[in-house]
TrEMBL record:
Gene Ontology molecular function, alphabetical: L-lactate dehydrogenase (NAD+) activity; L-malate dehydrogenase (NAD+) activity
Gene3D superfamilies: Lactate dehydrogenase/glycoside hydrolase, family 4, C-terminal (3.90.110.10), NAD(P)-binding Rossmann-like Domain (3.40.50.720)
Residues annotated as binding substrate: 83, 89, 121, 152
Gene name per UniProt: mdh
Annotated family: Belongs to the LDH/MDH superfamily. MDH type 3 family.
Protein name, as recorded: Malate dehydrogenase
EC id: 1.1.1.37
Length: 319
């Protein structure tokens, strides 16, 4: 069976890490695309030279021409600018919306059959715009945010309880921003729901609240430490988990920004929900029941996303 082809649009911090992970896991041959000529080619060559040491046979190529992504099975988009200290994800909207238009056109022309994972911020609005600009079916365009936010939540829980990360599951719904909705009720340690972990006295309610807030602030905490950019190792690992579920038809249920057509009472917007990802892309939106307070928090998050989408429509009326 011919190797799959993975196109990475954006060869920056996350793009380079995506390339490393995709090649090391031999998910397919990698095309690194960027508008800064030289960067994709240099990173692809350097990564290729790690192949003999790591033992992978994936090939990597760098390019500044969209024609080189032709026939890609998966396209992962990080093109755009990241935030700096003091900037919110929303501050990136105008600049990155223009980038999504270019990327959407390139995908439509050269990789219209691909499964597209958008990472660029502000995520929920950018994945919505990318789907519109590319014209690809909504089930083949998803956003990566919930896997990252859930991974942050899981890390903080495992670190606090000194248990294996493998035995911690977590759900985070809603937009990738301050209004995201971590769901303790659907998060477990060894299969034990978090509220029971609190009842058992293994973790205090205050500590859980602190962890939830630290999850919400996860991106800003790293931006504040790095000062020159934002998180990239965990975002890349999260997108690769989504890509692998598609490429290997794993039917994982992962929190992703997906296009809702009435699920959760939401129509025509991308927002983070549990999604079954397989060879058909976003094959099923899993609708979990939410309590009154959870639904209220979710609706608030959807409203924040809709505000960003309205801002996109004002900037690009054709959307
Ligand atoms: O969970 C999430 N979704 C977020 C997303 C997690 C972390 C970072 N998040 C966002 O991903 C971040 O706010 C940015 O919008 C993207 C990419 O972050 P990264 O850290 O990789 O940014 P870099 O290192 O600046 O890389 C961006 C690359 C850079 O090499 C630019 O030259 C390139 O994008 N770029 C373009 N490529 C193609 N086409 C155009 N127009 C273009 N403009 C810039």
């Amino acid at each position: 069976m011919a190797r799959k082809k993975i196109a990475l649009i954006g060869a920056g911090q996350i793009g380079g890490t995506l390339a490393l992970l995709a090649a090391t896991k031999e998910l397919g041959d990698v095309i690194l695309f960027d508008v800064v000529d030289g960067v994709p080619q240099g990173k692809a060559l350097d990564l290729s030279q790690s192949g003999p040491v790591e033992g992978f046979n994936s090939t990597l190529k760098g390019t500044s021409e969209y024609k080189d992504i032709v026939g890609a099975d998966v396209v992962i988009v990080t093109a755009g600018v990241p935030r700096k200290p003091g900037m919110s994800r929303d501050d990136l909207l105008e600049i990155n919306l223009k980038v999504m238009e270019q990327v959407g056109a390139g995908i439509a022309k050269y990789a219209p059959e691909a499964f597209v994972i958008c990472i660029t911020n502000p995520l929920d609005a950018m994945v919505w715009a990318l789907q519109k600009f590319s014209g690809l079916p909504a089930n083949r365009v998803v956003g990566m945010a919930g896997v990252l936010d859930s991974a942050r939540f899981r890390h903080f829980i495992a670190d606090e309880l000194k248990v294996s990360v493998q035995d911690v599951t977590a759900f985070v719904l809603g937009g990738h921003g301050d209004t995201m909705v971590p769901l303790p009720r659907y998060s477990t340690v060894g299969g034990i729901p978090l509220p029971d972990i609190v009842k058992m006295g293994w973790m205090s309610k205050e500590k859980l609240e602190q962890i939830i807030q630290r999850t919400r602030d996860g991106g800003a905490e790293i931006v504040g430490l790095l000062k020159t950019g934002s998180a990239f190792y965990a975002p890349a690992a999260s997108a690769i988990e989504m890509a692998e579920s598609y490429l290997k038809d794993k039917k994982r249920i992962l929190p992703c920004a997906a296009f809702l057509k009435g699920e959760y009472g939401v129509k025509g917007t991308y927002v983070g929900v549990p999604v079954l990802i397989g060879a058909g892309g976003a094959e099923k939106i899993v609708e979990i029941s939410l309590s009154g307070s959870e639904q209220k928090a979710f609706d608030k998050s959807v409203a924040a996303v809709n505000g960003l989408v309205d801002a996109c429509k004002k900037i690009a009326p054709k959307l």
